[in-house]
Write a structure and sequence with these properties.
Elements (H helix, E strand, L loop, with lengths): L3 E6 L3 H12 L4 E7 L2 H11 L3 E4 L8 H11 L4 E6 L4 H10 L3 E4 L4 H12 L4 E2 L1 H19 L12 H11 L4 H8 L3 H15 L4 H10 L8
Parallel strand pairs: 1-2, 1-3, 3-4, 4-5, 5-6
Helix pairs in contact: 2-3, 3-4, 7-9, 7-10, 8-9
């Protein structure tokens, strides 16, 4: 029986060790490498030709989103399973867009993790139950919003991402810090910031902060 060759990518030693021991309990799997950051994964993939990568999102040097995007460009047939604590639809969508084949939460039991790997190797998608529910709810919410009549108040419509970035701006975070928190490029944050200013007809940060406070997006301190 041909074994499924796996690389584990996580910046926590305990997680890598525990996950490795868990996977080795299944005779179908063989661990061919463990990496603490994205750079190490890219180097390993070139040398060892794995079947699947289990990667976290939050990692130093190259995070899981950028890692997935980079690997899929060079190795489109490589399977990538996200294994993370982040139960957030935005991260899920970013990983899907980057090319990930599945998304499993770290509180998953052994059987679910094993099934995820086997399903992905067989060419299927796999999402933890909570993630599937999250995606379905988000789809339903988006569909309902599209059916609602447009507001007549003249108030500019801000996307969920724009509101999130506006909140960080109002709280004093720089574009670089926001990019790090949201696992986006600084250029993307700059684009969202410019779109915000155009929509709101605001041309300075102080006015953005004032707008956020007036709309209750952030609360004034003191």
């Amino acid at each position: 029986m041909k074994k499924i060759k796996i690389i584990i990518a996580d910046d926590h030693d305990v997680v890598r060790t525990g996950l490795g021991l868990l996977l080795k309990s299944n005779p179908e799997f063989v661990i061919i490498g463990e990496a603490k950051d994205g750079d190490e994964v890219i180097d390993m993939v070139g040398r060892s030709k794995p079947d699947i990568i289990l990667t976290d999102i939050s990692m130093p040097k190259i995070n899981g989103i950028e890692l997935t995007r980079t690997l899929k460009q060079t190795y489109p047939e490589l399977k990538i399973l996200v294994f993370t604590v982040h139960e957030n639809e935005e991260y899920v969508y970013q990983m899907i867009r980057a090319g990930a084949n599945g998304y499993v939460l770290k509180n998953a039991d052994k059987d679910e993790l094993f099934h995820a790997i086997q399903a992905i190797i067989a060419g299927e998608w796999f999402f933890s139950t909570n993630i599937s529910k999250l995606l379905i709810k988000d789809y339903i919410d988006r569909s309902r919003n599209e059916l609602l009549p447009a507001k007549e108040s003249g108030e500019p419509h801000l996307t969920k991402r724009e509101i999130e970035i506006l909140q960080y701006i109002a709280e004093g975070f720089t574009n670089v810090q926001i990019a790090e928190k949201l696992f986006l490029s600084v250029r993307t944050i700059n684009t969202h910031r410019n779109n915000l200013m155009q929509k709101l007809n605001i041309h300075e940060t102080a006015s953005l902060v004032r707008y956020a406070m007036q709309r209750g997006i952030v609360k004034a301190e003191g």
